[in-house]
Design goal:
The chain is α+β, with helices and mostly antiparallel strands. 30% of the residues lie in helices and 23% in strands. The protein contains seven helices and nine strands, in the order αβββαβββαβααββαα. It has helices spanning 2-8, 90-99, 125-132, 146-153, 159-168, 192-202, 210-224; strands at 45-51, 61-70, 74-84, 107-113, 116-117, 121-122, 136-140, 173-175, 183-188. The protein has a seven-stranded mixed sheet with strand order 3-2-1-4-7-9-8. Strands 5-6 form a two-stranded antiparallel ribbon. Helix 2 (90-99) packs parallel to helix 3 (125-132). The radius of gyration is 20 Å and the shape is globular.
């Protein structure tokens, strides 16, 4: 009887390993090696990411919209994911969003509207570059008030880790777009010179690069039913 029972039981199939994207030629074991652009094409593929409106301190889900642009002139696609307001899942969600996209191999760079989404869900741009092989540019309209941000983060028990993500984003650079107010950026995975050129190339209708400006409009419109103004 025991032998019959053993025969009836089918062996368990081994679990498949999680899907991992193939490494790009530009991706290295560490973040110190950056992507070198021989020349930046006028149709470089840029993924711009912004969040939709949300209720502060709610712990609810907030939508992130990614727009895939050819520089600042042509919209090729829209991606979507969700993160938790004031949570810690923004970095992982963005890595998954990029790696699962059919546009992954075409991406030249990712642009983020700030380093926090959904309140204080802080992004680690080094982890994003390491996890996707896609260089990251963080765009800020104004120079951030870092002491004020640090003070606000101290309301969270893991504030030191969140603050460390901000410090790891590195130096803040001013970028002057012709005919517009200056904006600011932090970068990972590419040179300052290349980042400046990409920002200026994609800022076709305002100081804010078009991939981010359109992501902001779409995220607001989808969430509330109608967007209000520009990014």
């Amino acid at each position: 009887m025991l032998m019959e029972n053993l025969k009836e039981k089918k062996p368990k199939r081994p679990k498949k390993p999680p899907k991992k994207p193939p490494k790009r030629k530009s991706e290295s074991e560490g973040f110190k090696n950056i992507k070198r652009f021989r020349n930046i094409k006028p149709e470089i593929r840029i993924l711009g990411v912004d969040d939709g409106p949300f209720v502060p301190h709610s712990g609810e889900q907030v939508m992130l919209i990614g727009t895939l642009f050819r520089a600042g002139n042509w919209l090729d696609g829209v991606l979507r994911t969700h993160i938790t307001v004031d949570g810690t899942d923004a970095t992982g969600s963005l890595i998954e969003l990029v790696n699962d996209s059919r546009h992954w191999e075409q991406l030249g760079v990712m642009m983020l509207d700030g380093i926090t989404f959904g309140g204080f869900n802080v992004v680690n741009i080094r982890e994003i570059f390491q996890g996707t092989g896609v260089p990251v540019i963080v765009i800020m309209r104004k120079y951030p008030d870092l002491p004020r941000i640090k003070k606000a983060l101290k309301n969270f028990p893991d504030w030191e880790e969140r603050w460390d993500h901000i410090l790891q984003a590195g130096e803040i650079f001013e970028v002057k777009v012709p005919g517009q107010e200056p904006i600011y950026m932090q970068i990972c995975g590419l040179s300052e010179e290349d980042a400046r050129e990409i920002v200026k190339l994609s800022a076709t209708r305002s100081a804010i690069p078009e991939p981010i400006r359109v992501a902001h409009i779409i995220a607001a419109g989808v969430t509330t039913g109608e967007s209000k103004g520009n990014a």
